[in-house]
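Minutes, methods subgroup
Present: GH (chair), OT, SY

1. OT presented the first of two proteins processed in the latest run. Sequence and structure tokens recorded below as shown on screen.
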Amino acid sequence: MPGTVPYWEEGAMTRTGAEGMQMNEPDEAQDSIRGPQGWRPCLEDQESAFRRLRDLALAFDASEIRPLRSDLRQACWNARAGYEAIAPHLPEVWQLPKVDAASIERLPEIIAGLLFTEHRCIELQTDALRPSARSELDSAVEMLNRFWTLLVSAYEELERVARFLGLGHAVPSIEA
């Protein structure tokens, strides 16, 4: 729609994120990924991760995009658990031939970016009365699916490496 700026373009958001990935303990009122540690990247870190990875998400051809059909919170929690299972072995993973170790190492950042896109979709759904909200929501859902595709792609590599290392049992599925 003329005059609207998709939220993933520079200048569309006013918040700035920290360069590091800080993990905050969520309070009960916050929407979060729940688990033993209550892990959830703060919104500023989510946005920062989103901005760093948006070009990777936009690089997918439209035919490669996988629509999100899973419980996002559970998928993110499982992806984080899978990453934590393999993280101690990352130096070894970097030595393996034909392995995209960088995509595996990016998983926490991909999760944070995905949570940011979900947050933006929710914001736009609550703002549905604004005339440009529908086109912005469509753009946000497209970006959500692009980040989901980025997560699935990286996680498939993690699962492949985990099986090779004999850690397949410690890596939960992210798709329902």
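2. SY then presented the second protein from the same run.
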Amino acid sequence: MYKDVDFIKESFVKDRRVNCYSEQKDLDRIRTSFDERYFEGQDKNTRIGSTALDLISLTVGNVNPFEDSLLIRIPGSMQKQYLQSVAIKEPETGYFLKQIPFSHDGTYWFFRLPTRNWLATLRISSTENLRARVEGPQNIYFPLIFGQSAEQYQFVFSDVGQYRFIKTEIIQGEKQFERWSEQEWQEGEKIFNWTPTSLASKDIYEFSYTVETRRNFGEAATEPVSRSVKFVHDPDWLR
């Protein structure tokens, strides 16, 4: 089954480091000891995702307090061009991190973020509310791993209006690996946690969902809309 994922293992192309500068006042440029540059700061208008009820985050990681740094990893060896749009956001404070200068160790893309800067300033002490997504080739998503691996994936969706998930499942073809019950009406973020069993081998899966929306409480709901998100699962990422 994993044969379909082989295209994702693209050859690692080394490129020259590009110095990142910005004249925007809401960005803070930080230089690390490795002469790498990335953008870290606070902006509550920064958004992950382009349309309503997009997948805004697919992550793995623990929620322990940070030490001197936070290890950020992306599995696989996709070409670096797919990492250029990766951004990390904490919705409540508006914290963001982008244009991350990832390096590759043969298995993971990685970056070690000093936590004494914005994370400490904004009193963000865990990965629980950090949001990030990594979209690889052919619109297939990979999890971003914070710190040490955990036993489950966290999928996060969001919308500014009211919505409810009426059918939500993780599938592969006709085979179902997880199903959630019909959800209540809500606003803001919706989090789904998935702990795969041993039956879910290394492969591509679909997070399939059907939602209905409405503008205000008491109004009629729209016609249900069905969507799906393809993502890669590997049991080794959860160890």
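Chair's summary of item 2: Helices lie at 118-121.
Next meeting: continue with the remaining queue.
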